[in-house]
Amino acid sequence: MCLLQVHQILNTLESSDGLEYDFQELKGNRIIDIQTLLGVFSILSRPKCFATGLKLTENSKEGLCSNFAIVCKCGFMAGFTSTPKENKKCSLNTLLVFGLRLMGRGFSAGMKLLCTLNLPYVCKKTFRIHELKLLEAVKYSCEENMKAASKEVQNLKKTTTCGVSVDGTWQRRGHMSLNGCVSVISIDTGKILDLEVMTQYCKMCEMNIKCDHECSNYKGSSGNMESVGAFRIFERSVMKRELQYTEYYGDGDSKAFLKVKDIYGEDTVTKLECIGHVQKRVGSRLRKLKKKNQRTLWKR
């Protein structure tokens, strides 16, 4: 609350001494920090104010963060926010957006949640601003963690060659997904060394929004995303991670391996089978064989 607002409220109180105050009644729910609440309790330890009457006003709100003021007829006034601010910004709104994105939900889901709880909501433009800031923070944190993981492998093996598990995943099951992701995980540490996110759909282009933005980075079938993603990761491994992924642990699909087997030179990458995938395939075939034989014996 600025100094001008404080003087305006105090002048109003002085000019209307002995009259009833027309404060707007506050409704709905608010989220409040416990330490802030304890501070407010200490403010309310003035016996004189209890006698003359106290009023709580909400001067402004920024999404889930509200700016309150306790005002008394005696001229006393104290302002406070429902949650602490960092660099003059409420972190609670950022945490709301972050939590929704972790669950795979967006603005509409957030609106439904806040309206159901009778809480103030964040406008769509502000929600998007928080999304973009979180995206940059997550990208930076992700890159730093993967760099640290690659350094750990180098220190552990005392060499720049290592084995990695390569696998892809898609937003939707089947081969119709517009978005996919490929990651490589160190066999020695179990930590992610690199990943490649691919999409063949751009909402901003679909809506004909003419502005600079990060567009789709893949064209082709969804099933081929794993091969392309693996090639991109292996291609930049020396430059970005100072490592050569010379042992390729896959899931039995040889398409991605064929893309990278000569990437550091002829036959420099060796394909090794992941025991988990071998176990899965053998188990599936044994169960199928058992089921087939049971039917044959039943007929006899």
UniProtKB/TrEMBL annotation:
Record-linked InterPro entries: Mutator_transp_dom (IPR049012)
Superkingdom classification of source: Eukaryota
Domain Mutator-like transposase per the UniProt entry, residue ranges: 28-295
Lineage: Eukaryota, Metazoa, Ecdysozoa, Arthropoda, Chelicerata
Protein name: Mutator-like transposase domain-containing protein
